[in-house]
Amino acid sequence: MNKKTKKYKTKDVTVIFVEGDADELMIRRLLDYYRTKGWRCDGDLKIENSNGFPTEIKMTSKLEQIQSHSGDAVMRFKTVCCEYDSDVFELKCQQRPDWKLIETHLKEGFDVSDFCRIEAHTSIEDWMLDDLEGLLNALNLPLNTKPKGASGQEKVKDLFLKKNILYVRLKGKNNIQKYIDKLDIGKIREARKKELKDFEKLLGVELE
User: At the topology level of CATH, where does 11-123+185-203 sit?
Assistant: First the structure.
């Protein structure tokens, strides 16, 4: 008697790696904005917080973990995206990876269909400052307040400190979420269209 061949369902998954809590909150806001414009994700979507620069080792480990919890489904990684700040290279905190090699490894090791990057210039805090008025309103600060600092991160920290709020970008979700939720994400997306071009193309986001 022939045994029945077990059938496996295929599950498409999009994975977005982000540097920290602030990045995760901003990317979630961005995805919600796309949805209000009619975009729908084809398959499952996961946002993975790397709590630091999303290195190849971190991404590989998480993709293996996702596969190990797939049950009877065959995981097909439709898109893998890596979001990070450009200042990690400019400040020499991180050596610039060979992205082409990483893309090749991910495609060969995990059958990833598409790989893209979101390089936030120079940090995700600079994105927040694209809606400075919204951030000042969220913090209940006067609209003529001038943030102090040499970088976007320093300026955002300065604004939060004016309200005695500790801004911790990697692990400070509970402190900052309600403020980021009040930002005009459409305005920010408009200012960052160039940085988001490849990401939106792979996701199938169609905006003017």
Answer: Rossmann fold (3.40.50)
